[in-house]
Design brief:
It is a single chain. By secondary structure, the chain is of the alpha/beta class. It is about 30% helix and about 25% strand. The chain has six helices and 13 strands. A six-stranded mixed sheet has the order 2-1-3-6-12-13. Strand 12 and strand 13 form a beta hairpin. Helix 1 packs across helix 2 and helix 2 packs parallel to helix 3. The longest helix is centred in the first third of the chain and has 15 residues. The radius of gyration is 18 Å and the shape is globular. About 45% of the residues are buried.
Length: about 240
């Protein structure tokens, strides 16, 4: 079974959680695209749902597949968001943003009762950081913002090369929100929660790709089948 088939398996398993009348967050990326396509088949068969896309690419996919859409200005919450991830650790903390949609993805995930992460099992890692960490930034004052990011890295015990992301045409990649992305090659992030807080406090940083405590469960597809991991709730929850 190839990687694309594994992704579709994970998407199909997440679709089993969808019920009639639900309001759904629709993720971005190759695995999330499978979910949107499979959801479209269910909608064509009579399922009544409405979705909020996390990118213009996903919006176009959903419209092509016949999935009704709305916005977070028109509804006050989402039942489930289904999205992919670039890395998933055992606490279900994530690195996201390889596709450049991290800001909208995080807004949608935070507005959801549950976030189901779908992925092939190569995305499961013992510690986050092998995948470059995306940091979405305002172009203005980029030098100052990068210096502040480096300081935050040092304070959190990580370091690595940073580069402004380029698009396929060689020009700077611009997000749907009109921002740039700096990708940081950190290797290993021992304390992703602390780093997330430090990055969020920097003027000029719009958002970062550390998703801490947002994922409720992960559906991982591999050669041995589907594995579902639920996030452990802290004591007192």
């Amino acid at each position: 079974m190839n990687m694309d088939q594994l992704k579709r398996q994970a998407a199909a398993r997440a679709l089993e959680e969808v019920r009639d009348g639900m309001q759904l967050g629709l993720g971005t990326g190759s695995t999330a695209k499978h979910f949107v396509e499979l959801l479209g088949e269910r909608v064509a068969a009579g399922l009544k749902v409405i979705g909020v896309p996390t990118s213009e690419t996903t919006r176009a996919d959903a419209e092509r597949c016949g999935v009704p859409l709305t916005t977070l200005d028109e509804i006050d919450h989402l039942d489930i968001t289904v999205d992919g991830a670039d890395e998933i650790d055992p606490e279900l903390n994530l690195i996201k943003g390889g596709g450049g949609a991290l800001l909208r993805e995080k807004i949608v995930a935070a507005a959801s009762d549950r976030m189901i992460v779908i992925a092939d099992d190569t995305k499961w890692v013992p510690t986050l950081g092998r995948f470059p960490l995306p940091v979405e930034v305002i172009p203005f004052g980029l030098g100052a913002t990068r210096r502040a990011i480096e300081k935050a890295f040092a304070e959190c015990g990580v370091s690595g090369q940073m580069a402004v992301r380029k698009a396929k045409d060689g020009h700077v990649f611009v997000t749907d929100g009109g921002h740039w992305i700096v990708d940081a090659q950190l290797g290993r992030i021992a304390d992703p929660g602390s780093l997330a807080k430090a990055l969020s406090a920097i003027p000029g940083v719009v958002e970062h790709g550390l998703f801490i405590g947002l994922a409720s469960s992960a559906v991982l597809a591999g050669g041995k089948g589907i594995r579902v991991i639920e996030r452990r709730k802290p004591k007192g929850d």
